[in-house]
Design a protein that fits this description.
The chain is an all-alpha fold and 115 residues long. 82% of the residues lie in helices and 0% in strands. It has one domain (3-113). The chain contains four helices and no strands. Helix 1 runs antiparallel to helix 2 (36-59) and helix 3 (64-86) packs antiparallel against helix 4. The protein is elongated, with a radius of gyration of 15 Å. 21% of the residues are buried. The structure holds protoporphyrin IX containing FE (HEM). This is Fe-S protein. The chain crosses the membrane at residues 6-25, 37-55, 67-86, 93-114.
Length: 115
């Protein structure tokens, strides 16, 4: 794995930390507000993920079903996170909040457990 690939994978993990960390901070404050850490985190996941997908395809070892599912989940998360942040909503509905956290965890689970 060359340096560019490793650097992208590293940024992908930092993006995961940002989106999930931002959500956890809001959970622990009992605020149910979305924040810029989550917005920048999911944007990082989509950007680095798509390039990582391209690199894996070029190497001929991309799991297209797995990465397609991850892409759709991340796209859904992007919409769920970006709209309340852009509209400057003070908080989101509890169902929306917990669904977002669960979907982030499911997406990371797909990354790790779907081999
Ligand atoms: C919320 C969104 C996302 C989360 C939480 C997430 C999480 C992760 C995690 C934890 C890994 C590391 C797995 C491991 O090393 O065992 C990973 C790797 C990867 N992800 Fe994502 N991901 C997300 C979005 C995406 C998207 C949208 C794509 C592109 C379709 C993508 C493509 C990849 C690829 C190709 C790898 C393998 C990297 C490598 O080993 O070189 N990810 N992801």
């Amino acid at each position: 794995m060359d340096f560019v690939h490793l650097a992208l994978r590293y940024l992908h993990l930092l993006g995961f930390a940002a989106v999930f960390g931002g959500w956890l901070v809001s959970l622990l404050k009992h605020k149910f507000d979305f924040n810029n850490a989550m917005l920048y985190g999911i944007a990082t996941q989509l950007a680095t993920g798509i390039v990582l997908y391209g690199l894996a395809s070029a190497d001929g070892d991309a799991n297209h079903a797995k990465l397609g599912v991850k892409f759709l989940l991340a796209l859904l998360l992007g919409v769920m996170i970006a709209i309340p942040v852009w509209k400057k909503r003070e908080k989101v509905a509890a169902g929306h909040f917990y669904a977002t956290g669960a979907l982030i965890a499911v997406t990371a689970g797909v990354a790790v457990f779907w081999t």
